[in-house]
Amino acid sequence: MVSALSGVTDVLLTIAAEAGASRTEIALAHVDRLRERHLAMVQALVADRDRGELTQAVEGQFTELAAVVQALAVLREVSVRTLDVIAAMGELLSSRIIAAALRHAGLPGEWVDARRAVVTNDDHTRAVPRMRETTAAMRAMVTPLLDAGRVPVMGGFVGATAEGHTTTLGRGGSDYSGAIVGAAIGASEIQIWTDVDGMLTADPRLIPQSKLVPHLSFAEAAELAYFGAKVLHPSTIHPAVERNIPVRILNSRKPEGQGTLITENPDAQGGPLTAMAAKRDLTVVDITSSRMLMAYGFLRQVFEVFERFQTAVDVVTTSEVSVSVTVDDRRHLDAIVEALSECGAVSVEPDMALLCAVGDRLRADPAIAARVIRVLEEVPLRMISQAASRRNITVIMRQTDLPHAMHRLHEEFFQ
Q1: pLDDT tens, 59-95?
Q2: Domain 275-414, CATH 3.40.50.360 — does that match?
Q3: pTM of the complete model
Q4: What DSSP letter does each residue of 59-94 carry, written as one string?
Q5: Cα gap 178→84, rounded to integer Å
């Protein structure tokens, strides 16, 4: 599985936005620049004698994209189905080029159209794979290539419905695609090659002293990915867990590195915590009502509001008369607050951050959680939560306090 060239998906989404606003000349100028960039890659990676068919395919995709731009400029509307068609082009182009580059290097590369191999539902821009249909498609298209000694090359992030409509799996979905394919073909190991050494104890942009985590469990990795670790797409682990396939994260710029191995069981030699993850730009929403006291059905009413506006909640805390939640999607926040006002008094606090400390040992040793809170005693904490799995302890604070809190925790547990 390969991603689009760096920055290409962002440009494609810009093209869609400009076309939908009838700024045709700007959109087509972006199309021309992307065409030139991809043709330059073909020129650099593929021998003259092998370029003809590939160049024709690349030109054809950009001719199609230009036609879509013209149509959107007339319609002045970009549907999610059309957005997927545009966003998928980066991976479809890069995978074609990489397959040809492998053949030029003497390896038997074979391009596979991900739209025929990954079958999803029709939830455009965030499609979910249908594993039974995908497994059947993979065994029909990919397994015979592997048996013949070929190297299948597919674009990540891309799939299609059973009816053939192009879909995408959401930003960062190339790793997820790799796990889907690995599970479908029964791989012995799924490898994710990225630009960092593996999973680190903390975000190195905030903690320069962060260290490599050589081994962690599926459950720990899932917690870290969901709560902000950028190395993994939050959904990546799920297909591997279902088939119990180890996942290894490696640095493509340091192929000799050991990376991070993710398996069913945690590292027996690990410390009290495995790693930390953080999320910025959160909003805390408080709902307070005396009607909640000794009542049933109140929480259902609250969460039905978030469901109605398709807004995910990260952290929840409750008391006898109040509920506090965090959200990172503010698109429908005003409407959510208005709807929640029917349940009680609502207040909103923006510019908050989440810090999550993760480790399997939290389940067996309550002293670790107490130690985390004690280390942060001088940081004003807005919310504290420990989920049923007891593999993490999560705190919410002002965004401005996050760097200090992360440094304190890292010094205590990892240095």
Answers
A1: 999 999 999 999 999 999 999 999 999 999 999 999 9
A2: no
A3: 0.84
A4: HHHHHHHHHHHHHHHHHT---HHHHHHHHTHHHHHH
A5: 19
